[in-house]
Specification:
- The structure is a homodimer.
- Chain A is α+β, with helices and mostly antiparallel strands.
- Chain A is 39% helix and 19% strand.
- Chain A is built from 8 helices and 10 strands.
- Chain A has a 4-stranded antiparallel β-sheet with strand order 2-6-4-5.
- In chain A, a hairpin with a 5-residue loop joins strand 4 and strand 5.
- In chain A, helix 3 packs across helix 4 and helix 5 crosses helix 7.
- The longest helix of chain A has 27 residues.
- The termini of chain A are far apart.
- At the A-B interface, strand 5 and helix 4 of A face strand 5 and helix 4 of B.
- Chain B binds a DNA duplex through helix 7.
Chain lengths: 265, 265
DNA sequence: CGCCCACTTGAACGTGTTCAAACGTCGTGG
DNA sequence: CCACGACGTTTGAACACGTTCAAGTGGGCG
């Protein structure tokens, strides 16, 4: 409860406009993301372009899906930032991943009925809900595509493992360094960032909940990283000042992301 | 390096006897495991029974596959215990999962070329290496089976997330309680344990490397759990004295394992 | 202007680490 | 049969990293 709660009561402006909707650029964004996972044939792309879904706009800190639910759709994150999290009995929160536009953070719900964690927005977001059936039809039609999605979930598992190592065996300084390396690399891979500055709309409390540290210690450790000339992070904007140094500090090796496209910087 | 190292130089008694081998009971064990993930039709079972592989016996603390390798086979763990791990630059180790007979801990290698972590035995083990091609043929032949395997990897990811929460947000006592609840539940689900006592061939150092704590603190925390009458753990043998208490201490809810069969106890 | 929220800073505290020594058991070799 | 070494475990004591509590700063927005 001391944490800034994801507020499930915020179900406000849910501007849905039909069931066969889509959003401009959605398919390109998804195809670009899948392209970082593996290669797509032209017919695969064709098939993907037939995907339709229900568009939904969400407020910051609104749940896309909540723990315990049994969704019949997956959520394509078209715009905005999101994260996976769990809340413990004592009220403390662990964030397990961050998500950027182009991600489908709950592909797993295709095969695992019950959500064992929640998925919430961090910013205003646009999500396209695609029926499970539509996804499974796509897989049946384009066999290469399910392999890509499977590979995507396996890469996600690899990222979880990497976070486990950070949480279990790295100390705060390296843990944070690494926590910044990862999304920068991912955003580069889908072309969401060009230079050394990127939008990363997180509060220090959220960083703490992802890194398993208190917000106070996040503040202090960020100061260290700043004083060492590695980065600045204010108002949800991250500026990388010394990529090499940051990589060294976090022992970051992008290999675990298994990206097909060239990695960051 | 202060850790009991997985010794890759121990490649000793590698009794391979051909390429089309199998091992008695292997298919039943695999089918039983898959049965905890989802339901299999009779034709699915037929198809699975055609799987063949190269049998390999391994010493304790021998790598099944090592980080950086690009395997062309998956490893079915027929007998013995194994774990996934990574070693950091400073020499510290993080164990990311434990594996019991019936598991195929590196299904991911079907779709991710390069191993981003190592997989090593904890005890003498028997492994059956199955060619990637044989697995992919099986998937093509029995479409329901790939769904099951995919679901299996998704459940594995769910377990990683649960460990992340433990590493990031739980303190030692609950973290260990939970660490014991999990394998007991899993072993019950595949019928490897009946009563309250089970073989869990881990040293305190290995438990520490899984729980992100020092072996010294593992020793102290085990003493607490023992003094509280929850369990005893000596010589690789775990005795559950108070399952309810252990579950409470670890806030353990088996839901994240998404087992189809009835859960432990 | 004033409030709210995120961030910062200081100080005390606590959980868990590190270092070090000692114990028990088991397997090996004299 | 006993001595010895290896290894896992236990225990103590000092220490460190990170937490918690508390107060204060600063910016954004009504």
């Amino acid at each position: 409860m001391p944490k800034p709660p994801h507020n499930p009561n915020l179900h406000l402006v849910e501007s849905e406009n039909g069931n066969g909707d889509t959003v401009p650029g959605m398919h390109d964004r998804l195809i670009r993301k899948l392209g970082t996972i593996g290669s797509l044939s032209e017919s695969d792309r064709e098939a993907i372009r037939t995907l339709k879904g229900r568009v939904r706009r969400l407020q910051p800190y609104e749940d896309i899906v909540s723990e315990g639910e049994r969704p019949s759709v997956v959520a394509f994150l078209h715009a905005g930032f999101a994260c996976r999290y769990k809340i413990l009995q004592g009220g403390s929160r662990q964030i397990m991943s961050f998500h950027i536009p182009g991600d489908i953070p709950d592909v797993q719900s295709l095969f695992i009925e019950r959500m064992d964690h929640s998925l919430g927005t961090l910013t205003e977001s646009t999500v396209v809900h695609i029926e499970h059936k539509a996804m499974l039809d796509l897989f049946a039609q384009a066999p290469n595509v399910w392999r890509l999605f499977w590979r995507g979930t396996l890469i996600e598992a690899s990222v979880f493992r990497e976070w486990m190592v950070g949480l279990g065996r790295r100390e705060a300084y390296g843990r944070l360094a690494r926590l910044f390396c990862e999304p920068v690399t991912q955003m580069h891979s889908v072309g969401l960032v060009e230079g050394k500055i990127c939008e990363l709309p997180l509060t220090q409390a959220e960083i703490g909940d992802a890194a398993g540290m208190s917000n106070v210690h996040v503040s202090r450790t960020l100061k260290e990283l700043r004083d060492d000339g590695l980065l600045t992070f204010t108002g949800g904007s991250l500026a990388i000042l010394d990529w090499e140094g940051l990589v060294r500090a976090g022992e970051f090796d992008a290999g675990y992301l298994h990206l097909k496209t060239a990695s960051a910087q």
